[in-house]
Amino acid sequence: MPATKTKPPRLPMLQEDKLNPDQRALLDSLREGPRGTGVQVRGPFAVLLHAPAYGELAQKLGAHVRFSKLVPHRLTELAILVTARLWRSQYEWHMHALHAAKAGISDKIINDIRMGRVPKGLTKDERAIYDFVKELHKDKRVSDRNYKRVHAIVGDAGMVEFVGICGYYVLVAMTLNVFRMPPPAGAPLPFKEK
Length: 194
What we know:
62% of the residues lie in helices and 0% in strands. It is mainly α and 194 residues long. The protein folds into 2 domains: 16-66; 73-178, Up-down Bundle (AhpD-like), CATH 1.20.1290. Helix 4 packs across helix 8. The longest helix is centred in the last third of the chain and has 35 residues, at 144-178.
């Protein structure tokens, strides 16, 4: 992995013991949801705490789509990885490469995506997800063929949530990139910085 440095974050890192009541309420909400008590003040949450009313809305949408029961978790994590690679989102990639591996995506597939290669060894459903996300980002549309392939996996409601997953993780990537949120201290950068 590239050993380049990132520029410093554009927002100050808030200390948990110095949060105002609205920021504290957001952090509590994050920890009470499906992400659990291990949520730390870093990554997208470190940014969202600066605008807690917005942050509450964004984190609820994120929790809903990430932990959707309509889209298999393994496929959600694959879609997030493809998005993180397309946006070269350092923190998003770092965290979701770990989640994808736990969800059953092989290290080889994860590395191929990180390197910008079409992964070999994708299952039929994984390839459908990969092709859909790539086409959506490239063309800003999806073909009937790719729509039908994913629809066969998740159905009507699942398609709505899957598009939500794709959109939400672009929001996260933009947030992380604009505010220069690096991976956790000591973690290598998965992508070269410009």
